[in-house]
Amino acid sequence: MTPEEVARASAEAMWRTDRASQALGMDILRIAPGEAVLTMTVRGDMANGHGICHGGYIFTLADSAFAFACNSYGRVTVAQSNTITYLSPGPVGETLTATAREVALAGRSGLYDVTIARQDGTVIAEFRGQSRELGRDIAGVLPADPREET
After folding, report:
1. What is the pLDDT of residues 126-136, one digit of tens each?
2. pTM of the model
3. Which segments constitute the Thioesterase domain (predicted)?
4. Which of these, 36, 48, 82, 131, has the minimum number of CB atoms within 10 Å of its CB?
């Protein structure tokens, strides 16, 4: 399998049981080794007391993009820690896009940045996640490590 095929197979395997992302109406727009782009439309039931998207939903969108990016090598990888900085509101009805990219990968530890933006490109939050690979295969057949093919 190519690294791109491994990334797609990993995302498909994860998506089948990712009830949280599915329930929130997320869609995967792009998946590649170390990268993922997900969207989510802010529904009325996601609004906080100020009538804008609750920060927890924005965090969840970012966390899901982070998860798909760091699991794109075919191995079960979990969050070790993460932080988010909110910069601008997410209006109800707006489709938010979370773009995750790998910043560094050293052994079983990774660092990922996720930018969450509104449809007009306004960045509403920046998320940084640290990952830890657990050494187990995601899809049932442990592929050759695509990171070693470069």
Report:
1. 999 999 999 88
2. 0.91
3. 50-124
4. 48
